[in-house]
Amino acid sequence: MEQVAVIILNYNGLHFLKQFLPSVVNHSTGHRIIVADNGSTDDSLAFLRENYPQVEIMAFQENYGFARGYDEALKLIDNKYSILLNSDVEVTENWINPIIEFMETDDNIAACQPKIRAYHQKDSYEHAGAAGGFIDMIGYPFCRGRIFDILEKDYGQYDDICKVFWVTGACFFVKTKIYRQLGGFDSIFHAHMEEIDLCWRINGAGYQIFFHPASTVYHVGGGTMPVTNPKKTYLNFRNSTGMLYKNASTATIWWKVPLKILIDLLAALKFLWDGKIKDARAVVLANFHFLINLRRWKEKRQISRKLKPGEVKDTVYSGLLVIDRYVMKRKYFSQLKF
Q: What integer is the mean pLDDT of 65-75?
């Protein structure tokens, strides 16, 4: 059995399979390639069977969403490494081997990601991952190369192997055994933030997560849900609050979660100010739905606490990202002081 399985989750993504699967097949020789299909109703499966007989198909009978879809797929493989790859990603030559070789050097390295550039602006980092992810003190995610809406051009400023807090779900290299050991993606998230939640558990369990610049992929972004979609806004804000509640230490949860909700409501006011009424409504609903489903989130927290996680400090920014970005006017990762 091959050491590496490349798993592409698909739901009615025929156009992306036609556009990007050729790069995966051409640049992944010697590795297992699997399309896990979430009950597509388009011609995705017929296209794969006719044109890519070398690609394995896992055909689910329903749309499990991003989180559970990958969980179901990883139950069915026995490869040492899994690469969870979005269907809207173009890979490049030798995109796998440098990262696998690096992860092989240390059993403590659980996950890794390549450089994520924007498909439509190939000299720039892409929102979902850039050069590796971090969070601030209340769980707001950001990247080397991306703070909120500011994307940096890539001129080699982050071309070093770097320990990070989280790696992107768009191209997520992970040791399969550790993924399963820590519970995989949590289906309560459905989509968005589930990879950061898992990385929080990976960090808490004492494993390490890295960015490796020797591999580059190009991500369209918003492939299944456009960036401007209020549902995406809703999921991002609901899930980030839920993730903080699940994973914050007992000593800090009592003030971090209320502070996060307050800052989210300020974000809703900014959306209103910018005329984005649907996004403002989505932020309010996100936190309202978090609160009315607090019992369910509490159950999730109890499960996470059973893992007896340690505190993560070296890859958590001790400041408030919203203050740095909108008050101090710091736009770039290099301006933050860890």
A: 95
